[in-house]
Design a protein that fits this description.
The complex is a heterodimer of chains A (171) and B (607).
Chain A: E1 9-18, H1 23-33, E2 40-45, E3 52-61, H2 63-75, E4 79-84, H3 85-88, E5 91-102, H4 105-117, E6 121-125, E7 129-136, H5 138-148, E8 153-158, E9 162-165
Antiparallel strand pairs in A: 1-3, 1-4, 2-3, 5-7, 5-8, 5-9, 6-7
Chain B: E1 21-23, H1 24-34, E2 39-42, H2 49-56, E3 62-65, H3 69-83, E4 87-91, H4 95-109, E5 114-120, H5 136-140, E6 146-149, H6 156-168, E7 174-180, H7 181-185, E8 187-189, H8 209-221, E9 225-229, H9 231-235, H10 238-251, E10 255-257, E11 272-275, H11 282-290, E12 293-297, H12 303-306, E13 317-322, E14 336-339, H13 342-355, H14 361-375, H15 394-407, E15 412-416, H16 420-428, E16 437-438, H17 449-459, E17 464-470, H18 471-474, H19 481-486, E18 492-497, H20 502-511, H21 527-533, E19 537-541, H22 544-556, E20 561-566, H23 593-596, H24 601-605
Parallel strand pairs in B: 2-3, 2-4, 4-5, 5-7, 6-7, 9-10, 9-12, 10-11, 12-13, 13-14, 15-16, 15-17, 17-18, 18-20, 19-20
Antiparallel strand pairs in B: 1-8
The chains are: A alpha+beta (171), B alpha/beta (607).
Function (chain A): Catalyzes the conversion of 2 pyruvate molecules into acetolactate in the first common step of the biosynthetic pathway of the branched-amino acids such as leucine, isoleucine, and valine.
GO molecular function (chain A): acetolactate synthase activity
Catalytic activity (chain A): 2 pyruvate + H(+) = (2S)-2-acetolactate + CO2
Chain lengths: 171, 607
């Protein structure tokens, strides 16, 4: 069989893992060891007893590679569940960003005006700077950052996405 | 020292009574006994002294002292592969653990169930760059199927039981448990293995019945079918090999095997086409290329098998039975994936096949006629000059070894090192039963065979254990002659001595203009004297006339023997699919060497 040259797709994969030491290293090691891509990764405990964590990974690859990634993740001993949200249908993917802008005069006013349009909050303000807090889809944050670039953008901190399936279904 | 019990870690309802609290080392040994461990391969050191002290005070678990930790792991692999049990290794912290890494990766690549117990510095010193400290769980994370660091005494017995479960269930593999010294010295509660299912790791072993039905239907329709079987059949136990034999005979289909799967189907049987792949037979590779249905049972489309991927078995529908879902569609896209145990799948296929009519007999007969024509090429042929003074051909030495070993009537186990001799041993020795052939397949670890032979002999005291070796490989773990001597293991080290790293030399000849860069074994030891220095018996054959006598004397001797068989230094291993080539572009012999010269740049980059 020819290794079919197909275009890479982006997949959002959610992994429910036992919250034990080294589990994140196993997941990351799987990606780095096999040359797969991680575009973003978030992890936090999600149950009351804090014994299980959810890892949300955004990755790219051919459909064969994405299938491999899922199978390899599921093979890890502390992994409870692996779900490809992209394949499961409509889903929400949201992230939070903190964006620092240092500017004055016209630029400063413009930054404030745009932040308002994006429903970003100024969570820290000095005479020469703002830190905006913004949540939303990654593309929305991308465009906010693009707009801030000429307006004195100096630093960005992003969480990476948290994702969930729309509707009553669960992973 | 953190020797107090953390009540949170002891599950409710399993509160141990006072009598059940012992030192961690004693708990460890008790778990090993409960897991039916009879033997541990290891090497002591500071961090594992408490475990060695506990070993000293008991008699039920035997310890085999190796001479290097890498050898401990290979010995445990040999033990596991020849007995079907889980091998156990015990090494100290730091260098003990890092020396074990090669063996662990070897076991990972070949799916061998192992437990590696490694010492660690006391918990309060972890991270301090203490003496003989290494981040063992960090280093071995990609080298094991799973690993653990026991930080609380209350976790000890649970983790150990779990480690055995993980090592042998699903696709087997090595599991490391890192044991800080204070956990071994201090008190720890003992819990028997809980029957409860694992929290997260529950591999599927039962194949889906409709997938089996679909596969059997495809088998019935097939005109040019081929079984392609691998190590998964061996790992699924002797019943799986039994089922394979039944199914292959029932269907009348031809069967080929990977290096790892040799012995699952008897290699002397007419329906067996020999090994496939880079050094596989002409008939096996052309059948793989020409088949219309490829039935892969427990093999993983390794690059040694497939050759050029876009030309691999181009006209076939592909069935793939594998217990590891990540092996399916990893390299070759298959039409009918079946996740599950190879033995179960084979039994279900037998049941489904029995229920109805068989395949098209005319088409199958025509397929066999084609295969027999390919077989007529006799791709494993070689020319041995019959005069007594003639130089020994390595292939001939192995054939004679097989014939004379068979005459003894003994149960024969073969281990190998890695290189030309390994391929010749796969091609020219015959394997009637599973678990008789131990070789480093996936990782290709030179130095595997001698320590593996130690483990095989320990697990099979009455077996005839032969390491078919090359002189370069065997020097990588030659210190194990010490272990062999200490335990009076009658291992036969059969060295095909061509004074070269033969496979390296072969590739240099074919692909690098015969520039033999660093592949000559300069300053070799005298292997006869070496054997004697290790209290064994050494023998040497330099001409054909001496060969049979040396083999006979080696087999008759009841102690360890090193047989130095001086063979043709220039012999190459054929047939061969050059790197980057397809199955129907094999080189059959030296007369076709120039074909290798046509290898593309792309092929040159492949290993």
């Amino acid at each position: 069989m020819a290794p079919v040259e197909e275009a890479p797709i982006t997949a959002v994969i959610s992994v429910l893992v036992e919250n034990e030491s080294g589990v994140l290293a196993r997941v990351i090691g799987l990606f780095s060891g096999r040359g797969y891509n991680i575009e973003s990764l978030t992890v936090a405990p999600v149950d009351e007893a804090r014994t299980r964590s959810r890892i949300n990974i955004v990755t790219t690859g051919t459909s064969m590679v994405i299938e491999q990634i899922k199978a390899l993740l599921y093979r890890l001993v502390p992994v409870h569940r692996v779900s490809d949200l992209t394949a499961l249908g409509p889903h929400l993917a949201r992230e939070m960003a903190l964006v620092k802008v240092v500017s004055s005069g016209e630029l400063r006013t413009e930054a404030l005006r745009i932040s308002d349009a994006f429903r970003a909050r100024a969570v820290d303000t000095t005479v020469g700077s703002f830190v905006f807090e913004l949540t939303g889809a990654p593309e929305k944050i991308d465009s906010f950052i693009d707009l801030m670039r000429p307006l004195g953008l100096v630093e960005v901190s992003r969480t990476g996405i948290a994702a969930i399936i729309r509707g009553p279904r669960t992973i | 020292m953190n020797a107090t019990l953390d009540p949170k870690t002891i599950s409710p309802g399993a509160q141990p009574d006072a009598a059940d609290v012992r030192t961690g080392a004693e708990v460890l040994l008790r778990v090993l006994r409960e897991q039916d461990v009879e033997v541990v391969f290891g090497y002591p050191g500071g961090a594992v002294l408490p475990i060695y002290d506990a070993l000293f005070k008991q008699n039920s678990i035997r310890h085999i002292l190796v001479r290097h930790e890498q050898a401990a792991v290979h010995a445990a692999e040999g033990y596991a592969r020849s007995t079907g049990k889980t091998g156990v290794v015990l090494v100290t912290s730091g260098p003990g653990a890092t020396n074990a890494v090669t063996g662990l990766v070897d076991a990972l690549m070949d799916s061998i169930p192992l437990i590696c117990l490694s010492g660690q510095v006391p918990t309060h010193l972890i991270g301090n760059d203490a003496f003989q400290e290494a981040d063992t769980t960090g280093i071995t994370r990609p080298a094991t199927k799973h690993n653990y660091l026991v930080k609380r005494p209350g976790d000890l017995s649970r983790v150990l039981h779990e480690a055995f479960y993980v090592a042998r269930s699903g696709r087997p593999g090595p599991v490391l448990v890192d044991l800080p010294k204070d956990i071994m010295v201090g008190p720890a509660p003992y819990h028997p293995a809980s029957g409860a299912p694992h929290r997260s790791y529950r591999p599927v072993s039962e194949p889906a019945p409709d997938a089996i039905a679909q596969a059997v239907e495809a088998m019935r329709q097939a005109k040019r079918p081929l079984f392609y079987t691998g190590g998964g059949v061996i790992n699924a136990g002797p019943e799986a090999s039994e089922a394979l034999r039944r199914l292959v005979r029932m269907t009348g289909f031809p069967c080929t095997s990977t290096l790892m799967g040799l012995g699952a189907y008897p290699t002397t049987d007419r329906q067996f086409l020999g090994m496939l792949g880079m050094h596989g037979t002409y008939e096996a590779n052309l059948a793989t290329h020409g088949c219309d249905l490829l039935i892969n049972i427990g093999a993983r489309f390794d690059d040694r098998v497939t050759g050029r991927l876009d030309a691999f078995s181009p006209h076939s529908t592909k069935i793939h039975v594998d217990i590891d879902p990540s092996s399916i569609n990893k390299i070759v896209r298959v039409d009918m994936p079946i996740v599950g145990d190879a033995g179960r799948a084979l039994q279900m296929m037998i049941a489904a096949w029995e229920g109805t009519a068989s395949a098209d007999p005319v088409a199958i007969a025509a397929w066999w006629k084609q295969i027999d024509a390919w077989r007529g090429i006799d791709s494993l042929r070689f020319r041995q000059d019959p005069s007594p003074d003639a130089v020994i051909k390595p292939q001939h030495a192995i054939r004679r070894l097989y014939e004379l070993a068979r005459e003894t009537g003994r149960d024969c186990f073969v281990t190998t090192e890695v290189g030309q001799h390994q391929m010749w041993a796969a091609q020219h020795f015959q394997y009637e039963e599973p678990n008789r052939w131990m070789t480093s397949g996936g990782l290709g670890t030179m130095g595997y065979g001698l320590p593996a032979a130690v483990g095989v002999q320990v697990g099979n005291p009455d077996g005839l254990v032969i390491d078919i070796a090359g002189e370069a490989s065997t020097l990588m773990n030659i210190q194990e002659l010490g272990t062999i001597c200490q335990y009076r293991l009658p291992v036969k080290l059969f060295i095909l001595n061509n004074r070269y790293m033969g496979m390296v030399r072969q590739w240099q000849e074919l692909l690098h203009g015969s520039r033999y860069s660093e592949s000559y074994s300069e300053a070799l030891p005298d292997f006869v004297k070496l054997a004697e220095a290790f209290h064994g018996t050494g023998m040497r054959a330099t001409t054909l006339g001496e060969l049979d006598d040396v083999i006979r004397r080696m087999l008759a001797h009841d102690g360890p023997v090193v047989a130095d068989i001086c063979v043709d230094e220039t012999e190459n291993c054929f047939p061969m699919i050059p790197s980057g080539a397809a199955h129907n572009e094999m080189i059959l012999g030296p007369e076709q060497n120039e074909q290798a010269g046509r290898i593309t740049d792309e092929g040159l980059m492949l290993v």
